[in-house]
Amino acid sequence: MLKLKVLVVGPCEAGKTHFSNFVSDQAENAGGEYRPTQGVRILEFETPLTKSKGRSGSIDVELWDCSGDHKYESCWAAMAKDASGIIFLYNPDQPSQSSDLESWHSYFTSSSKVKPNQCALVIRSQRQLYELEDVIPAAFSKIQHIKSNIEEDGDTVKMEFTKFIESIANALSEKNEQDELNIVKES
């Protein structure tokens, strides 16, 4: 079974833990008082495939819910190591989060082998996605955007997350197939 390591990164109080708990079906999903993540939380679960590209079954996911506190910056390299995908999460209704988010993008995309098609920007907002186009940082123009309003449309959030996980699995499968073809050509 395929195993993916997916990072959830972004500024403090963006909603990374709430999102991570929700998509992984963790019991502690209930809202409540804000408690900052200390370092990282790793949530392990399976996501069923939707028979894309002739495959069925499920994918093992390690979801790394990373603290938004820069005091853990010395741990970022360890977090990024062997990542299969990255979810950048932020709340555009808090203006300081946009510039902070760009530093997360700059670091994690340059220090990992994750391609743009293996990244997603999850936007936590009550507004519609088309209303947010002006506030989305330019660095995120080439990656998938997912609007996250779990309270009002949780099913859509889960569906978009599953599609994102499948797209990572497909990208990695295609890369592995290409690597195998290159090895055969060299011999």
Structure description:
InterPro entries: P-loop_NTPase. It comes from Bugula neritina (Brown bryozoan). GO terms for molecular function: GTP binding. This is IFT22. With 187 residues, the protein is an alpha/beta fold. The chain has a single domain, classed as P-loop containing nucleotide triphosphate hydrolases (Rossmann fold, 3-Layer(aba) Sandwich). It has helices spanning 16-23, 76-80, 96-111, 129-132, 150-186; strands spanning 3-9, 40-48, 58-66, 85-90, 119-124, 144-148. It has a six-stranded mixed beta sheet, with helices on both faces. Strand 5 (119-124), helix 4 (129-132) and strand 6 (144-148) form a beta-alpha-beta unit. The longest helix is centred in the last third of the chain and has 37 residues, at 150-186. It starts with a strand and ends with a helix. The mean pLDDT is 86.
Name some characteristics of this structure.
187 residues, alpha/beta, 6-stranded mixed beta sheet, 5 helices, 6 strands, 37% helix, nucleotide-binding, P-loop_NTPase
CATH class: Alpha Beta
Count of individual beta strands: 6
Measured on Cα atoms, how large is the radius of gyration? 17 Å
What's the order of the H and E elements?
EHEEHEHEHEH
GO molecular function, one term: GTP binding
Keywords: GTP-binding, Nucleotide-binding
InterPro entries: P-loop_NTPase (IPR027417)
Protein name: IFT22
